[in-house]
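Q: How would the structure tokens look for this protein?
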Amino acid sequence: MSATSEIAIPQSAEDIAPSWVQQVLQKDLPGVSITDVHVKGSISQGEGFMSDIIAFDAVGIRNGASQRYSLVAKLTDFERPLTMIKQWSKDFQIRMETTEVKFYSNAIPELLSVAIPSYEIKSMPRDEDDDSQPPVDSLKFLPKCYFAATDPSSMVSVRVMENLKAQGFSIKAGSQSLNREEMMLTAGALAQLHGLSHRLELRAGVPLPEKCDWMIVRRSDIQAVLKDFAVGRYLTGVKEFAAVFPDQTDLIARLEKLYMKIRPMEDDPRPKVLSHADCYINNIMIKYAEDVPTDVRLVDWQTLRCVPLTYDLTLLFLCNAGWDVFHNHRDAILAHYHHKLMETLGTNESPGLRSYTLEQLKADFKADCLNGVFNRFIRLMVLPADPDLLKILQEIQEWGSI
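A: Here is the predicted structure in token form.
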């Protein structure tokens, strides 16, 4: 293993041993003793560009009781040959991976420090001896992370997280659209992320982009990516759309020029929040009880950005919603998001986003939908053009946005 300050970073699955896992868990589970580790192997080879996600179970004892922890280790080898989006430089992809490490190790503790305990935690007394209960020091929008670090000398990194699949979370198969209830859950998760990051900015008295200067995507990065990859991918997507709907000549002509209207949202004067910026179907894991969605987690945090909150929302709708949800349930979902945002912000802070009305949110969503359209066409290889997309685009065109 490669050692950093205190806990070593494994080079491979063979390094995931009981003594190491015990070190990783001690901070959150003091007194735990790990006696055995069962490594199940890679469950998402190549996920995260240069990473393998290794599933393993840790068996041990805590407070005199036997315990079993289902975990994953996301191992990144920065020397691995590039296999995805080769147009991006090696340095850019390395910085994407280290951004996720810093998000878990730097940002999450700070977000937790300003979090308002949810009503679920308030109403459910925590038994310190019961490891089956949700930990108080966790956030509802992402998996619990026990350890995240990078070793600059060996160019490897690791994130040890709870195994969401073992808890019943899954990604919808076949790039299916999210239904109303699934969209509600996801919008609520984004509201917590956005609200807590805004609370953090108010408490710190430092603009969020300055406080989170470790993030991968800054204005210079965006310009490089737009030039080298995103615009080309977008225009290819427009051609694919035109092949499916050749009779939509006016709409296609408008779409061909749309990318020229896109400006970096980092330059937008509106309040910025910490945004996932890649919230589409492959990064949304949902838990069900008898086919009813009950919980959601967002994964893959390499492309974090500080931008207005509508960036995530337009991407959420354009990349995950079908026509019925977009047309008939959009207002209800945005209202739910707004309610959760206000709930997360609390009542004892400076005005900030607390003065942001639901009507302003709806208006900004319509005005910013160009970003969602752009992101959808970039992903047309995974989210093919269909009649629902056509209807959504026609409605946005009616708003005057396209």
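The CA atoms of residues 35 and 60 lie 5 Å apart.

The chain has two domains: 2-167, 169-398.

Upvote if useful.
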